[in-house]
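seq as requested:
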Amino acid sequence: MIQLTKEIFEYRELIWALTVKELRVRYKRSFLGFFWALLNPLLMMSVYVIVFSTILGRGIENYAIFMISGLFPWTFFSQSLNYSMSSIVGNHAMLKKVKFAKSVLPVSAVLSNVINFLLSLLPMAIIILLFRYPFYWTWAYLPVPILSLIIFSLGVGLFCATLHVFFRDMTHIIEILTRAWFFLTPIIYTLDYIPAQYHIYFKLNPMYYILDGFRMAIYYGRIPATSSITMSFVYSFASLVFGYFIFRRYQDKFILYL
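struct tokens:
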């Protein structure tokens, strides 16, 4: 953790330069450019609402708001995972020519997605206005779950970036696992749909606590329970410590497999 913080501070200018480059490349020759950061979550949310509102939305008041309060942060997590996982392999030429801390690459990948996520808060606010749903004062609490989400995403991203260097099939495996993870996380449904005896297994899911912070603040207008906040940061920091430990242990071998 301390070493990673030092690397981020030491290479902060390079991280920012790579972040800007990532954003430019992502939207290069795109007619709408950065507006895709606004439209993509909006369009995806519309599809999910249309598909699942009639199936799972019964009994959930203002189902669209309920869904997007979990869907937007999940989208950030899944995209951060994909971008950071390919960050080492995708920049193999740079790694062979320039000496710098390799952790800079997944960090900049996640940071570029943070900018996308912050932009996506605008369409979320527009949707809430269109549905005439109230803006609760608890929106001021959102920086807390956002921080937890970023830390957790970076930790998982560092771990997956390491695996991807040695096993290129990880792209397909992670895609399948994240899709299953999505449906095993209460995003499009509540735990009320699940038999009570299985709730304990769902609460072993780190994303359950992280998304709870967003949903409570946006949909319910309440601050999450202290235990939920604590668990979200326990999982987040555990993810970061483990992810960086694995990354740092094997990073010197990356060049042999690129």
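The mean pLDDT is 84.
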